[in-house]
């Protein structure tokens, strides 16, 4: 038994219903509302006021910072001249958050403009209540409720964007300035359907890497073990059950329990084929009725490809002499069988 490479969930996870955040279309509408509102200002004092509100909004939107962190920024020190980043937090908890280069350039252009120079050091120092009211007004223009357009919802939105883009949860934690993974993990939850999708992805990736032609994806249904060996039965989504025998040590080390998602693989030379009315010689815990799709013959070895009722393909490599004696035709029903000891179990890991 072995572990597969870790699989990034990306967009497979669900978000708790208790977390307020914006979907991509909603955040685009809110961004446009802020940009349009800023663009219609005419008087100099109005242009300056709206530029400040807009810049606070986009900083929250792109950094996932807390409102208090942005409003307390000293803009003469927060932005690094040598690179596109902003320093957030204070004391021994200062963190550097990367910014997109085009956005960073836009920020610096505003701060270094004649309009921004008069407020250097205090450009972001505005009343938090006033900023919230501006957010609510822009949200109302988009048909969004208050709980979706406040600073906390913007912070949540940025966190979820990063997680869905495949950013590890530990990095998201650092960018948000959170002290514990527990605080970040509530953004990322996995339903039964999510887990199936993730395992499906791992299954496809694994099939591209392994030499095994036969693979079955499922969850562990039953485990029987003694001091030396363990029998593991997995069940696929369509109800196919595959039995594997592994060492008890492997079972303990990999923490396989009932319900664990696994992938079972069997190399084609370890699979045999018999006519449906025949009885296999020896022990064969795994027997599956299948329809012959094709038989590819060669001088020494022949390949027999079949399809189970649920669409799963199975493959056996047998001697050409054996294949000739079977005289199989496409569409004929046969049984593919293999021993439990021939099954290799692969665990599936998710990386956060």
UniProtKB/TrEMBL annotation:
A GO term, aspect molecular function: DNA binding
Keywords: DNA recombination, Molybdenum
Record GO biological process: DNA integration; DNA recombination; molybdate ion transport
Residue ranges annotated for the Mop domain, each copy included: 209-275, 281-347
Domain Tyr recombinase: 17-200
Bilayer-spanning residue ranges: none
Domain of life (superkingdom): Bacteria
Name of the protein described by the UniProt record: TOBE domain protein
